[in-house]
Structures are given as C-alpha cells and as structure tokens.
Write a structure and sequence with these properties.
homodimer, about 300 residues, alpha/beta, Nucleotidyltransferase, domain 5, 5-stranded mixed sheet, 9 helices, 14 strands, about 35% helix
C-alpha cells in the first residue's frame, strides 16, 4: 500500500490537469496546462513533467501517479492495456513505473463493435465515481463519459466488464473547424441554443445514416430553416443523439433505467437532455472529482 | 436554342475543369486548375475566370456555361436551387447569367433525411449520363456519384425526382488529415489495399454506430491487427460501406438490381466492390465524360 502525499495527474490528449494531494485525497494545489499528449514531441514527456508540471505544483520530490493518454505509445511510455473485466486491484497491481516514483495507470481493452476497443483515463474516473457511494461497488451500473472519445462503460460488481467508444467530441471539433459545416464565427459556451440542440438530437433518428444526416445541417442553414448561429448547438445535438441512439442498444439492458454521466457540467447536461427525452433516468457526477478520487484509490491500493 | 462553340466549366469546391467545345460536344482544349470555390476570396470569381481560365483555353470571346458550387453563395453568384422533380428543360430554362455570355446551371433541392438536401454539379452529370443511351431517358434508374459529398439520385422518365447526400469523401479527408486516425505518412493512390478495404466495408455492418466503428480503426492498428499502411484503405471501406448500407434503404426500391456509378475510375471501382458484395449489379460511367455531355445538352437546350 502506498501512503503519504502524492502528485496526481490526468494527462490526456489535449490537456493536463495536476493536483498535489494529501494521502486522503484532499487537494492542496491544482494546476492545468495546455500540454496534451498530442502537443508533445517524441520523447519529451519526462523532461516537461520535471521542468513544468512539478515546479508549478511545488511537488519536486513527491511520488506521482498519472493516468490518461500519457500511458499510450503517443505519450511517455506504453502501459499495456488490461483485458476486461478489470477491478481496482488489477489496475493498482499493474502500474508502469516510468521514472523513480513516477507511475502510470494502464488502460483497458475489450472486444468492441469493430476489433478491440480502447480506454485510457476513464477507468480511473470509474473508480472515483464508485468511491462516492458504497452501493456502486455492487450490482450493475451503466456509466457514460462524454468527451473527445466518449465511453459507455458497463460496471458489474465493481469491475469494468465492457465498454463502447464513440468519437463524438472529435467529430464535432473536426466538422466545426475544417468541413463544409465549419462554424463562422466559432461558438462560445454561452451560445448554447437548447432548442436547436433538441432539433439536432431529434434529427439523429436511430443513429444510422450519419454521413447523410450531417449534410442536412448545410441544407437547413442554406435554406434559412436554421440560423447559422444555431448550427453548433444543432450539430452537437445530432452527434450526441446519434451516439446515444447507436450505443444504447449495444451496452444497455432491456431494463436499464438509469445512466450515470461523468464529466464536465456543460457536456453532462447535454447528454441528460437526450437521455431524459428517451425516458432514461440520468445521474450526473463531476469528472474532475471522479479522477481525483480514482487516483487516490489507486494510490492507496498500489503495492 | 444556343449554338456554336462554347466554354464549358465544372467549377467545384476543390478544383475547376474547363473545356473549349465545338457545338456538338467535341473537346478542342482542356484545362484543370486548383482553383476550387473554397479557395476563392469573396467577389473574385469573375476576375479570376477572365484572367486565368479564359486565356488558358484560348476562349476570350466565347460564351460560357458553368456548373457546380460556383453557383452557390460561396461562388460567383447564387443560382437558386430548383425543386425536384427537375428535367433538362427546367434546368436549361433557369440558367443564371452572371456576366454577358456567362451562365451558371442552377442546383437542385428535394426533401432529405433531415431538412432539404442540396446538389450542385451532379445534375449536369445526370443529363450527360442520359445522353449515352436513349433508354436512360425512360424508366427508373438509380445513380451514384461518389465524392466529397456523394449523391444517390433517383431518375424517373428522365427527371431527377429525389436524391440523398452522404459526406463520405469529406469525412475520409477530415479523419485522415486531422483526427486520432490521421494517416502517417499520407497514402498515395497506389497504396490501395483491396483486402483491407473489404474488411473495412464489412465492419460497417448496417451503417449505424459510425462514430463507434470509426474508433475501431484505432483499436485495430494499436493492437497490431491491421498494419498502419492499410489504415487508409480500411477507413475508405468503412465509410463507403456505411454509406451504401445506410443510403440504399432510403433510395432503392425492393427490386432494385443495378446502380449506375458515375465518377472517377478510382472511386467507382471501390463502390463497385461494395455493391457487388451486396449482390447489386454495378455499371460504371466516367464522370468527366458525363459532365461534358451534360453541359453540351444544357447548352443546346438553353433559350
């Protein structure tokens, strides 16, 4: 069992969040960096961690526990994926030490709709989500992690038994930045238009024919049936609606009544709109709280 | 009826092809320019047409007929969309004159899966495809135009009665250039891997859950089940397979036995692989031949 204060890091594709923690998970200091794995030159993760992340948190000498894409071939070093089902003990027992006192949480893999599916970072949030309520360590639960690569995760008796990814957030960014549907000007968070979002979600239908339904946005704006300023919200609704319509049959039981959505409030609220419209109960949990609690649990359980 | 030689132009989103034609459609000179509508600054279409396109074809004084995205709000001027069903006579009777002797073919619109669907350029290829065989002026036919925004077009008694768009080519370019599935290095046409393409097409299933199936490519390459060099062909197969599986039920009759695929040989051959595997007959026609023949028919029929 590890003990004492440590540096907890969620190092993802697009950014890095770090917390200096007391052993019990209390946050003493927090920092965020626009230093995602996709911005790292090959081989520089270690140097930038030492020269930028540690000093910003006053954590030069603390042991560190990292999760996320930093454990991939694109990151610091490859922490091999663990095959589902995976428990806390299995994760904590397979940390990869990349430098003295610096360890990385492995990712998960399971059979997906097409070949193996992959996860890095959300497994830690799952463990943190469980920490908030002992009832979550038992029974069956369905979690959704909205984001660049949204994950739908089946939990059974505390284990991650399977999951399905959808590239929803990445498609939104690609289409809004580089395609014929490009947003002009780029939207800000304050521009969210719930009515346009709901129209987009309804336009997703059963989630099929996505490449055709996407082009529908061009027809709606060119014909004046949707104001250009509402296009980002409509596209978000279409993509999230298509994700939920497509993935739900693949991960949910016939009697599934509740989905737990773990992430930022802005995105969780959007998923909740679509789930509620489908008659599914939705419980929202904060993603940052979950990742801190998850790293704390893994830290405490690690050999 | 217009007569005499003219300058025929297919001015699309990414490039411009122009032909100096005899009245009967014989090509006297051809030129191609990387001057798509997306590369035009606002308001400069007329000037660049006069200073670059006309001189390159020795066509300073010829009348001109243009089709494609140049007739959109992003192009020279907006030639309003005609509502389906649309015949040759309706198209030829609604040309937009943007300068003395320079006319643009209007686009088409019809009710789509989501709002109005839109077409600019393919309507001209449809007319040219018909010119190759008088039997095509009668009965029901199904045409597919592969490309950035692929179109599936229903023809009845010579009229375009409806169509469905899929952003297949654009998704391929976006994902291969900017996403986690980015090709490295970029593929050349010679790298086509038919076996990987067929695996991708099979992975499309019923065309649903596209945002999840796409992420499958990452799992296949990370796990070593697909060599990175085969990723572009696999992705092409997945997207074309999903397009055909999704759009076919929306446009084809239960007894549809043949699809006519009109475009470049490289893309038509890929569509033919998927259609043939589905038990659909496939007849391929050259897209450039079709657009020249279509502009010639419209020219001859124009008031």
């Amino acid at each position: 069992m590890s003990s004492g204060p440590f540096l907890a890091v969620d190092w993802g594709t697009t950014n890095l969040r770090a917390w200096r923690l007391e052993e019990a998970g209390t946050v003493l200091q927090r920092a965020e960096f626009p230093l995602g794995v996709s911005q790292l030159a090959p081989g520089e993760a270690a140097a930038r961690f030492e020269s930028e992340v540690r000093p910003a948190l006053g954590a030069q000498d603390l042991p560190a526990l990292l999760c996320g894409m930093i454990g991939s071939t694109l990151g610091w070093a490859n922490a091999p994926y663990l095959e589902c089902p995976v428990s806390l003990a299995k994760l904590a027992g397979n940390l990869l030490e990349v430098a003295p006192g610096v360890r990385i949480v492995p990712g998960l893999t399971c059979a997906g709709l097409v070949g193996p599916d992959l996860m890095r970072g959300e497994e830690t949030q799952v463990l943190g989500w469980q920490a908030a309520d002992p009832a979550r360590l038992h029974g069956r639960h369905l979690l959704c992690h909205p984001g660049t690569h949204a994950k739908w995760v089946r939990i059974e008796e505390g284990h991650v038994t399977r999951f399905v990814t959808a590239m929803t957030g990445e498609l939104y960014d690609l289409l809004g930045s580089h395609s014929v549907l490009k947003f002009n000007p780029p939207p800000s968070d304050e521009d969210f238009d719930p009515e346009a979002f709901d129209r987009g979600a309804a336009a997703a239908g059963d989630g099929g024919a996505l490449a055709s339904r996407l082009f529908g946005l061009r027809g709606l704006t060119v014909s004046g049936q949707l104001p250009p300023a509402a296009a980002p919200s409509w596209l978000s609704g279409l993509l999230i609606g298509a994700e939920i319509a497509s993935v739900w049959p693949a991960v949910a039981s016939a009697d599934e009544k509740v989905a737990h959505v773990v992430g930022t409030a802005r995105l969780c609220d959007r998923y909740a709109r679509v789930l509620t419209a489908r008659g599914v109960g939705c419980e929202i949990a904060d993603g940052e709280t979950a990742v801190i609690a998850g790293l704390t649990r893994i830290w405490a359980a690690a050999p």
